[in-house]
Amino acid sequence: MEIEIQSKTNNPLLNRTEVHFIIHHEGESTPKRELIRGELAEKLKVKKENIMINYMKSSFGTTDTLGYAKVYKSLKEVKAGEREYILIRNNILVKEKKPVKEEKKKPVEPSEEEPEEGAEKPAEETAVKVEEGKVEETAEKPDEKKEESTEKPTSEEKIHEEKHDEKKSEEDVERPKDEEKPA
């Protein structure tokens, strides 16, 4: 990794020096900000904490990264002259984590599945299988549902069912109230 300084401009109004640089990193990934700050500090002969890297831009397919940094005379000037997100990026400030709101715990209600103390438990149904002289008993709980067919009726079956329902309702309407339904 090699850093080439393109331009170095003194900005007396803001008490800083602005530096544009190119990083040549053949066969490596884009270097981290901390490493670049250290290398720039050696080249410019200043403290690492006084250098703020504003941006680093790398292009696809190239091994060069363009960058812009600001060099201050003291850490006090760094904090006065830079925005907060730049200070966080350069690890001068630590980002504060927002406290996680604690959810209010609801009182635990007794569930329907668990009977209360003193309540009677539902009786279990017992099925008896007899196969060639062997007797097997299997216990089934009344809450357990047997698997039902998940097939959906076709559109023809739905139409047939609807017509059948309409006929039943017409029969109910046509009868006078005095007549009784045949058994």
Question: How would you describe the overall organization of this protein?
Answer:
The chain has 183 residues and is of the alpha+beta class. It has a domain at 2-89: 2-Layer Sandwich (Alpha-Beta Plaits), CATH 3.30.70. Helices cover 25% and strands 27% of the residues. It has helices at residues 33-44, 75-81, 84-89, 155-174, and strands at 2-11, 16-24, 51-58, 64-72, 125-131, 134-140. The strands form 2 sheets. The chain has a 4-stranded antiparallel beta sheet. It is elongated.
Feature tags:
four-stranded antiparallel β-sheet, 27% strand, elongated, 183 residues, Alpha-Beta Plaits, alpha+beta, two-stranded antiparallel sheet
Query: What fold name stands as the CATH topology of the domain at 2-89?
Result: Alpha-Beta Plaits
The mean pLDDT is 77
From the coordinates shown, what is the CATH architecture of the domain at 2-89?
A: 2-Layer Sandwich
Strand content: 25-35%
Largest sheet: 4 strands, antiparallel
Give a brief description.
This protein has 183 residues and is α+β, with helices and mostly antiparallel strands.
What's the SSE blueprint?
Blueprint: E1 2-11, E2 16-24, H1 33-44, E3 51-58, E4 64-72, H2 75-81, H3 84-89, E5 125-131, E6 134-140, H4 155-174
